Amino acid sequence: MLSTDATLWPMIAHAALVFFLYWLLSKRRAEAVRGGSAEAGHFRENRQEPPESLLVHNNLKNQFELPVLFYAGSLALYASTADNWATVALAWIFVLSRYAHSYVHLTSNRLRYRRPIWIVGFFSLMAMWLWLAVWLALN
């Protein structure tokens, strides 16, 4: 339904977040090794994450849980031409919620703030999938 590639931009924006988190994880791990709280060999099997990089490591893992459904849903909407301005808006809401969730996770890490942000992303993603199901059922 869209004549542009607007559906793809939220995926690119989320990928940018993931690349940033990988950079930050690498930076924090290197600092932990330089600071003496970890040895480079600890990362071979990664059985124990140093405190300096633990939040980044956990947040990065979060980017491959619910966002897997985001990528699959976005591509399915795009391929089936079920995407529209509402689904693009929902995709942006999801991605913005991931940025906000990461910010809270990496700073205060207060569940009081993290959970509502996660819920916003969850429901926006669920709405995208519901729209895809309705679209496929009616077309």
From TrEMBL:
Keywords: Membrane, Transmembrane, Transmembrane helix
Transmembrane segments annotated in the record for this chain: 6-25, 68-97, 117-138
One Pfam family hit: MAPEG
Location in or out of the cell: Membrane
Signal peptide (UniProt feature, chain positions): none
GO cellular component, one term: membrane
Main subcellular localisation: membrane
Name recorded for this polypeptide: MAPEG family protein
Organism whose genome encodes this protein: Xaviernesmea oryzae
